[in-house]
UniProtKB/TrEMBL annotation:
Residues 5-114 form the HIT domain. The active site is at residue 100. It comes from Enterococcus saccharolyticus subsp. saccharolyticus ATCC 43076. The chain holds residues 1 to 114 of 141 of the full protein. Transmembrane segments: none annotated. One of its GO terms (molecular function) is catalytic activity. One of its GO terms (biological process) is nucleotide metabolic process. This is Histidine triad protein. A motif (Histidine triad motif) lies at residues 98-102.
Length: 114
């Protein structure tokens, strides 16, 4: 979609640090790392938020998450856990309106994300 920053990232018009990619999803490091390895998982198909998902798209995105979580754990072996966050619409603090799932690695006491 025109003027969508995450569509531009998928199309490599804007650079990103790729974590994972296949024909359905793209995962890349969030520009604001709330903890080390903070990653966004997005469908390649532009949808604004979860209200626009059909079951197939939900399957595409959400079934990939365990694999991407394990890839993060392999890259950051000191991580101890993970928050999975998905904001939908402005009132829920969504700021980029191409649906995305945050994977936020947790490192125990030394990380200050709460
Ligand atoms: P939201 O608040 O919509 O759930 O999260 C949007 C996220 O997108 C934010 O964490 C923000 O840091 C990230 N973000 C916004 N613009 C860019 C960008 O150009 N590149 C990357 N890698 N992340 C971005
Ligand atoms: Zn988009």
């Amino acid at each position: 979609m025109e003027n969508c920053i995450f569509c531009k990232i998928i199309n490599q018009e804007i650079p990103s640090y790729k974590v994972y990619e296949d024909e359905k999803v793209y995962a890349f490091l969030d520009i604001t790392q709330v903890t080390k390895g903070h990653t966004l998982v997005i469908p390649k198909k532009h949808v604004s938020d979860v209200f626009e998902y059909d079951e197939e798209l939900a399957t595409d995105v959400f079934t990939r998450i365990p694999k991407i979580a394990r890839a993060l754990e392999a890259a950051f072996p000191e991580m101890q856990g993970l928050n999975i966050v998905n904001n939908n619409r402005e009132v829920a603090y969504q700021t980029v309106f191409h649906s995305h799932v945050h994977l936020i690695p947790r490192y125990g006491k030394e990380d200050d994300f709460s």
